[in-house]
Amino acid sequence: MLGTVIKNYINDKGLIQSRIAEKANMPINTFNDILNERRKIETLEYFKICSALGVNTEFFKEKLVEMNLINLVS
């Protein structure tokens, strides 16, 4: 779910996955496994990916809420 949302963002922005993986200091196969939902994303990996994409860590959580994929209760 989260990997797919990140992948869609990357594709929508016309970014290159290998460059994002490099910026996040992550092996491309690990990065691709996350984007294709074959591997759960770890917290530190998530922070690195957000940093590489130049978005804050709330960005994708908000996307999931907008898509009604998660429900936040305050």
3D structure, described in words:
- It is a single chain.
- This protein has 74 residues and is mainly α.
- Helices cover 61% and strands 0% of the residues.
- It is globular and about 30 Å long.
Global morphology: globular
Our measurement of the CA-to-CA distance between the termini, rounded to an integer number of angstroms, reads 22 Å
Main beta sheet: none
Q: Count the beta strands.
A: 0
Radius of gyration: 12 Å
Write the element-wise H/E pattern from the N-terminal end onward: HHHHH
Runs in which pLDDT lies below 50 for 5 or more consecutive residues are: none
- Average of pLDDT: 92
Strand content: under 5%
Number of helices: 5
Structural class based on helices, strands and sheet pairing: mainly alpha
What percentage of residues falls in helices of 4 or more residues?
55-70%
